[in-house]
Amino acid sequence: xxxxxxxxxxxxxxxxxxxxxxxxxxxxxxxxxxxxxxxxxxxxxxxxxxxxxxxxxxxxxxxxxxxxxxxxxxxx
Amino acid sequence: xxxxxxxxxxxxxxxxxxxxxxxxxxxxxxxxxxxxxxxxxxxxxxxxxxxxxxxxxxxxxxxxxxxxxxxxxxxxxxxxxxxxxxxxxxxxxxxxxxxxxxxxxxxxxxxxxxxx
Lengths: 76, 116
Description:
The structure holds two protein chains of two kinds.
Chain A: H1 15-22, H2 30-43, H3 52-65
Helix pairs in contact in A: 1-3, 2-3
Chain B: H1 2-35, H2 37-49, H3 55-62, H4 70-86, H5 90-110
């Protein structure tokens, strides 16, 4: 049994957390990201007992993995 | 013969270096505590350990309000936990689990619903 990750979500998402949410590696191909996003979204869909908060996190993770949000939290 | 000598030398050398490193570390700690760097480092550690989940976030994760009963929360949790075990990710499963842990404490202190 693996140990659960501590605490809540990070205040600002980074690529590492995005990859963890989707259950993929950071260096994964775009096609695989979409596949993982569909899989995780189905499991956590608000219409099927999931929550909107988790759904928004999953979407944010997908956008980050596909490079749509250039948010590295730093000026460089 | 030469091999044994060499091995002896290496073992002795590493022992000495190890002790030296340890002493240097202790000295550095002592210096730091004088200048207050250690206190800052300690506070950082505490903040990181205290990066716990808030009740508000826990409720958002499970999609429940303050009026939701403990039974309903458990149902939500079971479903999300199972779903993420099957098709989701371990990270999300962790968050769901931490959210339930957090709310369990809240509900126990209130004494309604009596989480077992």
